[in-house]
Amino acid sequence: MSNSHLLMKAGFITSPAQNGVGRYVCQLQRVVLKFCKNNGSSRGVRDFIESDLVNFAKDHPGVVVYLKPRRHRGPVIVAEYLNGEKQHVYCRNFTSEVVSKWLTLLKNQQGNHEGMRLRKMWHTDHPSIQGPWTPYTFREPSLNLAEFPNDKLSSPASLEPSATDRLIEAFKKQQLKELE
Fold first, then answer.
1. What is the Cα–Cα distance from 112 to 106, expressed in whole angstroms?
2. At the top level of its lineage, which domain of life is listed (predicted)?
3. Which of 5, 29, 45, 165 is deepest in the core (most CB within 10 A)?
């Protein structure tokens, strides 16, 4: 095990657990669009502000949008989440559509947890090495090599009776006993 985790900050995810089970709570709190009014690399952000920003604000009333013009700087989108994390996206020479897609992506995320060693509420000295269970875990191994359709596997004689067939047989036996 490496010691690279010693330099990372450790913490718990502070966003609501199972977000979307009861009701969805958008984790994006505020968006700051920083752009230059004259610089050519900010053209896509300026086009987005002129054409699509009002629609974005109407569609997402829980997200506060700030515009911050600044001179001779590249365009940046700063997203701030409910858990206090900030995420910066440098938007140099982006088109209006790409800016819109980035805002949608930032809105759908839970916050930036990269560079954080996530801690758990439980601990075990003997973790499982078996791996996850799948529906194919306990299947018959001969099915792995069989080619379908297979007459041997699909013949009624090779199949054991189902629970319904067993109940029907038990019911018929009970009726025969009552008639005797």
1. 9
2. Eukaryota
3. 45
Task: Tell me the two tokens of residue 99.
Answer: 């800016």
- Please list, in sequence order, all residues whose beta carbon lies within 8 angstroms of the beta carbon of residue 99, skipping any fewer than 6 positions away: 44, 45, 48, 77, 91
pLDDT number for residue 69: 95
Tens digits of residue pLDDT in 60-108: 999 999 999 999 999 999 999 987 888 999 999 999 999 999 999 999 8
In this structure, are residues 66 and 30 in contact, taking their beta carbons and an 8 Å threshold? yes
Element (H, E) at 176: helix 163-179
One-letter identity of residue 7: L
- Record: fold of 24-117: Glutaredoxin (3.40.30)
Closest CA to 91 of 31, 53, 41, 51: 41
The two three-digit tokens of residue 81, written as one number: 């989440």
Q: pTM of this prediction?
A: 0.56
